[in-house]
Amino acid sequence: MKTILVITALAVAGLVAGCSAARKNRAAVQEPSQSEAVSKPSTGGEVPETAPFGNAALAGKPEEGEASAHVWDFRDATTWLLGDLPLAMLNNPPHSEWFHKGYADYQPDNGIMADLMATEKDDLTITIVLGTWCPDSRREVPRFIKMADLWGFPMNKIRFIGVDINKVAPLEDYTQLSIERVPTFIFYKNNIEKGRIIEVPVTSLEQDTRDILKKN
Length: 216
Fold this sequence. Notes:
five-stranded mixed sheet, 6 helices, single chain, Glutaredoxin, 2 domains, alpha+beta, 36% helix
């Protein structure tokens, strides 16, 4: 009888251990790596009212409460924003998660911003080409918009173009931009290109912008 009880106890212990291992392995498959996980939205201050955010919704995307608990894979083509897009699209899930945090966290250099604020901008326009699947775009674009807001640059003079993973956008005039990497920030004065920041700034977004605009 004791032998039967010992065998039964060992069998139960083996089943319990097996279930734990299975759960652990299953959890390891389902959980994304730290590099793939989307940062949680910042709980700090609100985005300044100067940011031109609207209430446009992303069709087919989860409601905000549902999205907050979702880990997004931005390599998934269903999350991509393509072609001409309003900045307000980045104020909605899933993109609000990285956009708001990047915007709130970035602190441009005050001295360089003072130089930019003294720069004539009436004849300037900017085109930003980005890929929402691209980590560099998700890092640099919110920073640039923070800089532009502090600069006082009108958002209606910035064109946003979303591209797919092949750096292609469904626009007739897109090929004229000769985009090789994203993000690309293109500066125009009187519709003539003055320069561009490609992928990452040489120094900082605000200093590279100032240097481009000060070129003859």
